[in-house]
């Protein structure tokens, strides 16, 4: 017996990261860029103040961290809370969406950290064969 073929049009997903104008592409860039992924990963451990976060994400400049946090806050991944104290206190933490993103990102980080011997061996082989040309 044949399965009936549907004549209904299949709706494309509302967002497609591979489409140039899709807003999900910008968010993906914010999360997976060097400073975004490290910032989200650092915040997975819990809320941080700006300077704590800057120390944790070794090598990030104050300007880049600020821009990264603003982009992640705009995307709903990070929540910024300013406390009316003297001096002012600002804490950053992941939103529920940010915690989900961080969990998936942590899996990738653990995979890469656990595979570094293989990566370093591959790099050495590549460099050896490319260097002999």
Structural overview:
The protein is mainly alpha-helical. The chain has one domain: Arc Repressor Mutant, subunit A. Helix content is about 55%, strand content about 10%. The chain is built from six helices and three strands. A three-stranded antiparallel sheet has the order 1-3-2. Strand 2 (about 80-85) and strand 3 (about 90-95) form a beta hairpin. The model has no long low-confidence stretch (mean pLDDT about 90).
List the helices and strands and how they pair.
Blueprint: H1 23-32, H2 34-43, E1 48-49, H3 50-56, H4 62-74, E2 78-83, E3 89-94, H5 96-114, H6 116-131
Antiparallel strand pairs: 1-3, 2-3
Q: Which features does this protein show?
A:
133 residues, mainly alpha, Arc Repressor Mutant, subunit A, 3 strands, flat, DNA-binding, Helix-turn-helix transcriptional regulator
Provide a short characterization of the protein structure:
A hairpin with a 5-residue loop joins β2 and β3 (89-94). The protein starts with 22 loop residues before the first helix and ends with a helix.
**What's the assembly state of these chains?**
single chain
CATH architecture: Orthogonal Bundle
- Unreliable stretches: none
CATH class: Mainly Alpha
Helix content: 55-70%
> Mean pLDDT, as a whole number?
91
Q: How many domains make up the coordinates?
A: 1
Biggest sheet: strand arrangement:
1-3-2
Number of strands: 3
Work out the helix count.
6
Could you say what the CATH topology is called?
Arc Repressor Mutant, subunit A
